[in-house]
Amino acid sequence: MSLIRHPATAKWYDRRDCVFIEFLVEDSKDVNVNFEKSKFGFSCLSGTDNMKYSNEIDLFESIDQDGSKHRRTDRSILCCLQKAESGKSWPRLTKDKAKLNWLSVDFNNWKDWEDDSDEDLSNYDRFSEMMGNMGGEDDLPDLDGADDESADSDDEKMPDLE
Prior knowledge:
The chain is mostly beta strands. It is built from 1 helix and 9 strands, in the order βββββββββα.
């Protein structure tokens, strides 16, 4: 029996030096991120239901494979693709203009950086620092609210999907 592969839902945004892609997979395991010069691959298993996710993207422009990184958390995998040509805006993530139903723009992090001076130049450095400073997953801060006494009850944190 072979596993059916589904594309993982992802959001992306553009910065001066990097393009960020966040794959929204909770409790991921067996994460595999493949950075190529003009192509990007991602796959993992979801720990909650063992669903196999796999995404492949022909990129809008070239990236620096060695400078690109990823970071896994319990809720997602954030990938930082370092642009081969820093300072060049990417109007889209993909080489072709085709709409991918699993990919959307992360409007919470999107900004028109082209008119800014050096304000965003340190974004990649901050990401690198975050990658280096983060220890094991037990060291991650609780982002759901430090004063929440009932740490074992996730029900109240999840939106009602019915």
